[in-house]
Amino acid sequence: MNEERIHNFSPGPGVLFEEVLENAQRELLNWKNTGMSILELNHRTSEFHELLLSTKSKIRILAKIPEYFEILFLQGGATQVFSSISLNFCDETDTVDYIVNGYWSEFAANEAKKNANVHISNDFNGYTSCPEQSELHILKESKYVHYCSNETIHGLEFQYVPDVGNIPLICDMSSNFLSKPIDNIEKYGMIYAGCHKNVGPAGLVIAIIRPDMFNKRNKRNIPLLMDFTELMKNNSMLNTPPVFNIYMAELTFMKLLNLGGLQIIQQENRKKSLLLYDTIDGSNNFYSYKMKYKDRSRMNVPFMLKNTCLEEEFIKQAGVCGLKGLKGHSQVGHCRASLYNAMSLEGVRKLVKFMKWFQIQNE
Q1: Which residues contact residue 223 at a Cβ distance below 8 angstroms, ignoring those fewer than 6 apart?
Q2: pTM score, two decimals?
Q3: Which of 252, 275, 140, 158 has its CA nearest to residue 196?
């Protein structure tokens, strides 16, 4: 690894594979011998059409997405999708269910309230755990059920796919997308993910939509760029798509395939998160976290120091050691380490070594 590069534990935009960045750098001035940069490529050309097909093909193979699912490349971030979902799949008088177990699922529910009657499927738990299946109270008349599989701020990750019967299940997978295989993908009506965690730079959202969902299109007027049906009909090109982001996504998909696929990636992510959690658990409460053990996220690890007055110094000294992005979200404070796919095991080892050293210096 280039010694000049730091270990980036930022929650997003997150760390990218160095090989992916090097490939992009190498091709930046002359992409595939076109004589132009990928940043200059017109989206109406045959070259871009081939790139789009290749990117879709690679993610289908990587995530085992059935051919009958549509794949859309969206803009506006997952936040825009929060509003788009309720606009597309229900009317103002309809009821929808939201499982809320953290900041982002709450955000999504609040956006949906502008366009539908939102029923919260679970009791508030202080955002320290994911609800069990038995704790979900889904209304039979709901048009869909929405949940977030991994909460970046509160460090919670679902360990199961909620059973919602025949009601369409919609999932925000932004922060653990492609960190492991997608179990029972046929159960989902829609999966979407902002790509600035595990796929590439900010500015692209990937949506995977089961075809029957397009039949649920309501009659209300929807802003054009939020209309999934129109986006599907126009192959995600109602306007100029994020060409560079799609290109970066293809490079990342290729890298993940070359590493052995999502089963191998899952194993590596388990190693990294266990190493960090074992260090926290073995620190005699010098370091600690609030989330329940069973729902700890492999992607985002919020933690605090026993003496919270030391946290600013911890973050400062970590930065001096080349460990960046460890400041917690403003909603909860403290510290947080994000362990996305491109974070190396060596990077986590360096963080753990620093944490042990810092504890010795400050006990």
Answers
A1: 87
A2: 0.95
A3: 252
Separation in Å, CA 327 to CA 2, 153, 342: 24, 11, 19
Concatenated DSSP letters for 1-25? --TTS-EE--SSS----HHHHHHHH
In terms of C-beta density within 10 A (0-12 exposed, 13-18 middle, 19 or more buried), how is residue 288 classed?
A: middle
Mean pLDDT taken over the chain: 95
pLDDT at 1: 40
**For residue range 272-294, what is the model confidence (pLDDT) as tens digits?**
999 999 999 999 999 999 999 99
In the beta sheet, which residues pair with residue 208?
Answer: 71, 191
Mean pLDDT of 285-313: 96
Active site residues: 104, 172, 197
Concatenating the DSSP letter of every residue in 168-195 gives -EEEE-TTTTTSS--TTGGGEEEEEEES
Q: Which two tokens stand for residue 304?
A: 């605090």
The answer, yes or no, to whether residue 162 has pLDDT greater than 70, is: yes
Burial of 285 (0-12, 13-18, 19+ CB in 10 A): exposed
Return the CATH fold of 20-258.
Aspartate Aminotransferase; domain 2 (3.40.640)
Check pLDDT > 70 for residue 2: no
Distance, in Å, from the CA atom of 357 to the CA atom of 337, rounded to the nearest integer, reads: 17
pLDDT at position 242 over 80: yes
The phi and psi torsions of 141 (rounded to 5 degrees) equal: -90, 0
Distance CA 191, CA 170 (A): 6
pLDDT single digits (tens) 102-128: 999 999 999 999 999 999 999 998 999
Could you say which DSSP state residue 328 is in?
P
The CATH label, of 3.10.450.710, 3.90.1150.10, 3.90.850.10, 3.30.70.1170, for the domain at 261-362 is: 3.90.1150.10
The encoded tokens of residue 348 equal: 């986590």
Phi-psi region of 97 (alpha: psi -120 to 50; beta: other; left: phi over 0): beta
Fold agreement between 20-258 and 261-362:
no
**CB–CB of 303/268 below 8 Å?**
no
